[in-house]
Amino acid sequence: MSEKRDINGVYNRYRQVPVYLIGLFCLMTVLMYFVGIGAGVIATIFTLTYGTIVVFVFLRMNLLERDRYVEFAMEHGKMQKELIKEFPVPYALLDESGKVVWVNDKFSAITESSKRKLMKLNIVQVFEEVNEENLPYEEDVTEGEIAFNGREYRYEIKRVQVNKYEPISEEHDEQMAGDGDDVNAQGASEHMDEKETAHAGNEKKHGKTDTFLAFYMFDVTMVNQLAQENHDQKLVAGLIYIDNYDEIFESLEEVRHSLLVALVDRKINKYMANVDAIVKSLEKDKYMFVMPQKYLDQLKENKFALLDEVKAINIGNDLPLTLSISLGTDYKSFIENFEAARSAMELALGRGGDQAVVKSADRITYFGGKSQGTEKSTRVKARVKTLAFKELLETKEQVIIMAHKNPDMDAFGSGIGIYKMVAAMGKKAHIVVNEVSSAISPIYGSFASSNVYPEDMIINNDQALSIVDDDTVVVVTDVNNPALTECEELLAYAKSIVVFDHHRQTKNVIANATLSYIEPFASSACEMIAEMLQYMDEKIKLRPTEADAMYAGILIDTDNFLSKTGVRTFEAAAFLKRSGADVMRVRKMFRTDIESYRQKAEGVSHAEMVLDAFAISIITPEKGPESPLVLTAKIANEMLNIAGVRASFVIAQVGDDVKISARAIDDVNVQIIMERMGGGGHANIAAAQFENAKAEDIKVKLVDLLNEMYKEGDI
Fold first, then answer.
1. How far is CA 87 from CA 82, 95, 214, 218, 230, in A?
2. What is the rounded CA–CA span in Å between residue 220 and residue 420?
3. Where in the chain are the domains?
4. Interval 251-298: pLDDT, tens
5. Which of 249, 298, 402, 682 could form a cystine bridge with 432, CB 3.0-4.6 A?
6. SS3 for 339-393, per residue?
7. Domains 88-224 and 380-589 agree in fold
8. Which residues touch 524 (CB under 8 Å, ≥6 apart)?
């Protein structure tokens, strides 16, 4: 606008030059009188004639120019109104409340409504996606998207200030003749009647300012379709591993090996052909595939039916064949997708296999995982991990061992086993324990008050943080979720981290672990450490108290060898028995007091059956020698003895918080149930906790989830 004013100013000064010359001629006339009277008279006549003509022309041109400006402004305004009316972009003018006050032809056409009808409606009544919150009350412009009549639109709503009565002045003429922000004003002026327009054209005072909302719509259907097609054609990387390849072929006649391989290949290739995937066998039990992104939803919808199809193959094999499938998607490059698929496969195997894991840039999704998994009969992995752990210890000076918060016997017993391994190598070790719960109190005193062990064998968080340095290895046992460890902050300070755990992994895992040994097929962390003790070159002799602690860990986690037990479990127990563990001594150690036994019986009596397969009980633990966690676990284990119960859930109201203990005896995987509730665990044993919640509300949530998963076939 200022540039236009400068141009007009130069033009006006240029027009005024002849007027300024009159003064010059007057000066010349005066000088001519000094030359002679005749010359002065002639100059006077010439000057008067010139001045009269210039003034007349100047005044006349001013009047004509003003008329032309007014005429141009009027014509320009009409032209703009017509252009907006026939503008191919849908456009509407709204008042501050969103009521439609004017629309152009295109807007009326796409909404298939007359202008008269539209002007009786509010914009929120015309488009469901637009609501009052979308109107720009505070911002100058708001944006959004609309799906209407099979088309997709991006809309903008812009606040516009309009002068209702505007004077016709030079500045106003320039504004009307200008570009830009005039369009909305012209649209608004169409709603003034002719009298108001005439008044606006002749009024010489500043008018009232009104606020309107300009509503624009841009058809982005084609753009979105092309973007979706581009997204659909991106390649998704995937891996398929046979979980129990060696175990299957060991139990199958050799002549049937090739037949089984052929059947598996056929199942995999046929399933992947339905989604235009290219499958390549990498090893005897590993496959890689790539497929277009658009088929990923199809695989999710049928919940990766390949998992069940392969398990149905039976040519005399004693065990069902299971697969693990992983996919990486939504990353910037295909290489990143493939790396995500590899990471997802590690997660699938760490969770026990027989499942599909889809890892995208912002989330991880699990499918399947209903089976209990197959125990690995080979101990090669345990031996390899033991040797790797020894090599790491040789380069460090001290070890800090910690488990999960509120440690149980498996956490404490496995910590004792690791302590023994480290001490055998002549390294200094500490175990982090902040709170001695009733779960470990029967045996904790045997170590804390013994003269055999150094005073700093058991330390707390503050002590651990004060001694950790670059020559320290932090060993985490019986947990792989950093948020559940005794001292999560310690992980940030440690340069070397080792993880030993038997729980299935979740998306929250300890990052940057130097060594990770997670075996979901093991019954307990004590079982894993007992195996590793046997592969140490040093002849480690466990004391009876140490053997009791580790034996108790296995005993508690397997519910007296009733669940999650395999050949290796009994072998580990036999090793501990030979090392001095006393079965009767351990049993006496963990007997229940009479009050806790009453509470356990009361909890079982409150059990309700859901879907004739799941027992649910709500308890409010009273203060006693046993912690609420131990009590809920015992009640859950006890309810598994009820005929027909496939899984049990005990919901405990502990103050303002709620804790759930879940156990399974059948093919139900309580881990996936508790994961949906925000918890975790492994197939037979899992748990979850909620802050500031009510037990009854959590029960309703659990029952709804069980019904939903039962209908979907997930349990």
1. 8, 21, 14, 12, 31
2. 68
3. 2-81, 88-224, 241-368, 380-589, 594-712
4. 777 878 888 888 889 999 999 989 889 899 888 889 999 999 888 888
5. 402
6. HHHHHHHHHHHHCCCCEEEEECCCCEEEEECCCCCCCCCCCHHHHHHHHHHHHHH
7. no
8. 410, 414, 478, 502, 553, 554, 556, 557, 558, 564, 569
Helix ranges (DSSP H) in 449-524: 461-467, 488-493
CA atoms within 13 A on the CB side of 97: 7
Which residues have CB under 8 Å from 437's CB, separation 6+? 406, 407, 408, 627, 629, 630
Query: Helix (H) and strand (E) counts for the chain?
Result: 28, 23
What is the bridge-based pairing of β-strands 286-292 and 458-459?
Answer: unpaired
CATH 1.10.390.10 fits 594-712, yes or no: no
Dist CA 451 CA 649 (whole Å): 42
Q: Kindly state the average pLDDT of the residues 210-220.
A: 81
245-249: long-range contacts, CB 8 A cutoff, minimum separation 24? 245/284, 245/285, 246/378, 247/319, 247/374, 247/376, 247/377, 248/317, 248/319, 248/321
Q: Determine the Cα–Cα distance for residues 129 and 120; give it in Å rounded to an integer.
A: 19
pLDDT digits (tens, 9 = 90+) for 430-464: 999 988 877 788 888 888 777 888 888 889 888 99
- The fold adopted by the segment(s) 241-368 is Alpha-Beta Plaits (3.30.70)
Percent residues over pLDDT 70 in the chain: 84
Give the CA-trace dihedral at 598, 603, 609, 613, to 10 degrees: -80
* Integer-rounded Cα radius of gyration of the chain: 42
Predicted local distance difference test score (pLDDT) of residue 649: 92
Measure the CA–CA gap between 709 and 407, rounded to whole angstroms.
Answer: 31
Is the pLDDT at 477 greater than 90? The verdict is: yes
pLDDT on residue 240: 92
151 vs 12, higher pLDDT: 151
Distances (CA, A) of 631 to 592, 601, 636, 677: 10, 11, 9, 21
Inter-helix orientation angle 525-534/567-578, to 10° = 60
Q: How many whole angstroms separate alpha carbon 574 and alpha carbon 144?
A: 68
